[in-house]
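thought: user wants a sequence for this fold. calling inverse folding tool.
action: design(structure=
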């Protein structure tokens, strides 16, 4: 270890009173020391030690011994707190994803947004905040972590392929984009998911919807209605889709199709086959799209097909699956209102390349999609089911729908929290006969407006 680094540590330790534990332990010299120790550590731990079945306790013990030996051999003045921190951070570097590991372990964090190696934001409880601490040493360090993430799932990221979607071992979704597309440094966005899949009762407890709404959606899933979950980015579409899947009969064969596997339907149902798309390799070969997987899934005798999200022409294949004996299928897409959802779905079908008249596309949607569940993220960070609508048919060339449940926002409280109310509209769903034919007992008070004895009426359709 160079004398200059040792001198810097001594100076900063005295300046910040590190021996009293009253100041920040992570000084610039500390980062330089960690970098050099990491390099030496990799020379002493062979690649064979990190392959196959890794005994993490043994590796951590080995790292501890190396840190103490190097510090003692070179006379590096480290406080006990610094030694403990170094061991923990070096263990994360060797066995995990470096400085991301503490953030990934924190269950209160739902999203990690890295704008560059110096600027990192996290989301906790629906609120976004900036990390005060710089956790990456430099751009090279961040890029090293990104490449480690992608290599673990057999994908790559480099100048010829500067964007990638990946997932971590815990199921978290990762999107990374590097230079030359990212102008200010590599950008990483990590969407974390609860370790325990949330059930519908959990969502009711969180105030995302009411028991009446949950009961109706449960009957729709059990009654094999085709459902579409719509909403904006980060509104909770995947979480809701997972919760809805818990009502699928365990004996049914379900095939899920996703770009990055996020759905946890297999935690509810035994007979689940999970499929994931694949990008092209360096030679531009091997691309497998969602359309390819949906078409193949129809040859696998599914009872239901669940597509994590429709983004392009696979929408037409999904609609065909719903319309050819695979009732009760589900998917999600980005949209902000029921009408926007229908327009978005029309656009995605037209992106398939099929030369279909717009009226034919709308008739296909009207005859296939039964229920649209609109999920929304509000200004206070809360996520709620904003609307449950039923597709009722066509009037001329227009798809008609009716709202069954809606959420009405009435204001904000002193803390900026949303004030509002979930309300049945009083409309009797057209699908009642279908649900009863599938053995559902549908109580009429489910749809009665709150605080009124008035019987549900059929309003004009829109």
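)
observation: tool returned 462 residues.
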């Amino acid at each position: 270890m160079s004398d200059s680094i040792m001198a810097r540590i001594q100076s900063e330790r005295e300046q910040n009173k590190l021996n009293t534990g009253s100041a920040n332990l992570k000084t610039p010299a500390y980062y330089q020391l960690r970098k050099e120790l990491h390099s030496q550590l990799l020379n002493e731990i062979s690649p064979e030690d990190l392959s196959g079945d890794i005994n993490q306790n043994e590796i951590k013990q080995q790292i501890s011994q190396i840190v103490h030996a190097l510090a003692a051999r070179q006379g590096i003045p480290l406080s006990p707190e610094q030694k403990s921190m170094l061991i923990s951070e070096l263990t994360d570097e060797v066995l995990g994803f470096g400085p991301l590991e503490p953030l990934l372990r924190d269950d209160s964090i739902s999203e990690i947004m890295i704008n560059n190696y110096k600027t990192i934001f996290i989301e906790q409880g629906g609120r976004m905040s900036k990390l005060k601490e710089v956790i990456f040493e430099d751009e090279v360090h961040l890029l090293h972590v990104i490449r480690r993430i992608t290599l673990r799932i057999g994908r790559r990221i480099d100048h010829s392929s500067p964007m990638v979607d990946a997932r971590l071992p815990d199921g978290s979704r990762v999107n990374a984009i590097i230079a030359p597309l990212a102008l200010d440094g590599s950008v990483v966005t990590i969407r974390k998911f609860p370790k325990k899949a949330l059930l519908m009762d959990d969502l009711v407890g969180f105030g995302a919807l009411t028991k009446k709404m949950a009961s109706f959606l449960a009957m729709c899933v059990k009654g094999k209605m085709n459902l579409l979950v719509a909403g904006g980015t980060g509104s909770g579409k995947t979480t809701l889709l997972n919760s809805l899947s818990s009502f699928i009969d365990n004996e049914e064969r379900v095939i899920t199709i996703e770009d990055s596997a996020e759905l946890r339907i297999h935690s509810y149902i035994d007979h689940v086959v999970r499929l994931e798309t694949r990008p092209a390799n360096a030679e531009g070969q091997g691309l497998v799209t969602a359309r390819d997987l949906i078409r193949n899934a129809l040859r696998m005798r599914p009872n239901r097909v669940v597509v994590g999200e429709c983004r392009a022409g696979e929408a037409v294949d999904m609609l065909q699956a719903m319309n050819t004996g695979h009732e009760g299928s589900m998917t999600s897409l980005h949209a902000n209102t029921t009408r926007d959802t229908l327009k978005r779905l029309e656009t995605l079908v037209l992106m398939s390349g099929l030369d279909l008249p717009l009226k034919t596309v709308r008739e296909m949607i009207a005859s296939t999609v039964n229920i649209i569940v609109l999920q929304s993220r509000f200004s206070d960070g809360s996520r709620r089911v904003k609307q449950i609508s039923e597709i009722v048919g066509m009037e001329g060339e227009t798809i008609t729908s009716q709202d069954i449940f809606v959420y009405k926002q009435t204001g904000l409280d002193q803390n900026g929290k949303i004030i509002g109310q979930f309300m049945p509209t009083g409309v009797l769903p057209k699908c009642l006969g279908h649900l009863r034919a599938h053995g559902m007992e549908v109580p009429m008070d489910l749809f009665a407006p709150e605080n009124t004895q008035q019987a549900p009426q059929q309003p004009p359709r829109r």
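thought: summarizing for user.
answer: Here is the designed sequence. Residues 8-23, 452-462 have pLDDT under 50 and may be disordered.
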